[in-house]
Amino acid sequence: MKRTSRTGAAARRRITRSRACGEKKQFTTEAAAEHAASEMHRIQPWQHERIAYLCPYSGTEPHWHIGRPLNIPKQR
After folding, report:
1. Which domain of life is it from (predicted)?
2. Which of 75, 27, 17 is closest to 51 using CA atoms?
C-alpha cells in the first residue's frame, strides 16, 4: 500500500509559507532590513553574518527578511 501523505520529520522540515515568511520579522524597505542586519552583526560578530533578502512569498506588497545566505528560500 502506497502512502499518499508525508508524515514525520520530513513533513515538519518542509518549507511552507508560514515558516518562510510568517515567523520572521518583516521589513517594509530594503534599507531598514540591511540596517538591522548590520546592527545584528555589529552586536554579535561571532555569529554568521545576516543579509537582507526580498521575500519570495510577499505577493503584492514586497517586504524583506534577514537571514543567513545559505538558508534563504529560492525564488518561485
Report:
1. Bacteria
2. 27
